[in-house]
Specification:
The protein is mainly α. The protein is built from 14 helices and no strands. It has 2 domains: about 70 residues, no CATH class; about 220 residues, Orthogonal Bundle (MetI-like fold), CATH 1.10.3720.10.
Length: about 325
């Protein structure tokens, strides 16, 4: 196991290098010039050029990338072009809201989707199965921002059960903390629940057709034990895989959800940076999201060996 983890970590290094190169290259392919935006509409070409030189934008790509990558290895992602603050410190300040939202979304999604998929597979073709299929289609079809506005209108504006916008840290109490995150997490989990439910159902249908399941039924094993103790355990690998892959959905959805509900997280930070062409912030946040996705998939690979002892890397 230790050798496998070390090998996988070494294999992620080229991926990280490619991701870093791509993220830094965003500055050269994205429209707009940061120096022009900082200088303003009334600036002369000389003023714009002076700002470009002060920011180092006149240097060759290889030199700038080498300096940026070396700084990133030491935790220095540069400074914001507009506020002058350290990008690393700004990201650290915004991580708790985003992390809280994603963890709560993950808990809600897995807790709801896996039982729904199991029950739908157990009653294939029945009323519950059809209802779950309809819910999955709606979950895939309804955009995150539409679901977010609907939830905010119904449960925040009309019923007043939850705050409309904002974020409360855990230090302020568990009630306010969860109250500000419930609606965003529900909005973000819609498509994720649909995805996990569909995979769970299809995988369970395949497992339930195996001989050992029919043998267990013939021996009189309880239906709940067959479904959750035997079949679900053997169907766990595809489900875990789709949960890991779906982290990308959570990351992209968090950007929209935080904007809708006014959560001061990484998603809101990158949206504000995009509007101002603040490229150091964009590069830093995208780099953090990319690394998160890479290491989540690494954790999923390691988890395979724990879920299925037949797997030997």
């Amino acid at each position: 196991m230790g050798i496998f983890i070390l090998r996988r970590l070494l294999l992620t290094l080229p991926v990280i290098a490619v991701v870093a190169l791509f993220v830094f290259g965003l500055l050269y392919v994205a429209p707009g010039d940061p120096a022009t935006m900082i200088a303003g509409d009334q600036a002369t070409p000389a003023d714009v050029e002076r700002i470009r030189v002060s920011l180092g934008l006149d240097q060759p790509f290889a030199i700038r990338f080498s300096a940026w990558a070396l700084g990133a290895l030491h935790g220095d992602l540069g400074n914001s072009l507009f506020s002058g603050q350290s990008v690393a410190s700004m990201i650290v300040q915004r991580i708790p809201p985003t992390l809280s939202l994603m963890v709560l979304t993950l808990l809600i999604s897995v807790s709801a989707a896996v039982p729904m998929g199991v029950v739908a597979a157990a009653g294939q073709g029945g009323l519950i199965d059809r209802a779950v299929s309809v819910f999955a289609v709606l979950g895939f079809s309804l955009p995150v921002f539409v679901l977010g506005y609907l939830l905010a209108y119904a449960f925040a504006l009309q019923l007043g059960w939850f705050p409309v916008q904002g974020y409360a840290p855990p230090s302020g109490g568990l009630g306010p903390f969860l109250g500000h995150l419930v609606l965003p997490a529900l909005a973000l989990s819609g498509g994720y629940i649909a995805l996990i439910t569909r995979i769970t159902r299809s995988t369970m249908l395949e497992v339930l057709s195996q001989d050992y399941v029919r043998t267990a039924k013939a021996k009189g094993v309880a239906r709940s034990s067959i479904l959750f103790a035997h079949a679900l355990k053997n169907a766990a690998l595809p489900i875990v895989s789709i949960i890991g892959i779906g982290v990308a959905t959570l990351i992209s959805g968090a950007v929209v959800t935080e904007t809708v509900f006014g959560i001061p997280g990484l998603g809101r930070l990158v949206v504000d940076a995009l509007l101002r062409r603040d490229y150091p912030i964009i590069q830093g946040v995208v780099l953090v999201f990319s690394f998160t996705y890479i290491f989540v998939n690494l954790a999923i690979d390691v988890l395979y060996t724990l879920l299925d002892p037949r797997i030997r890397y």
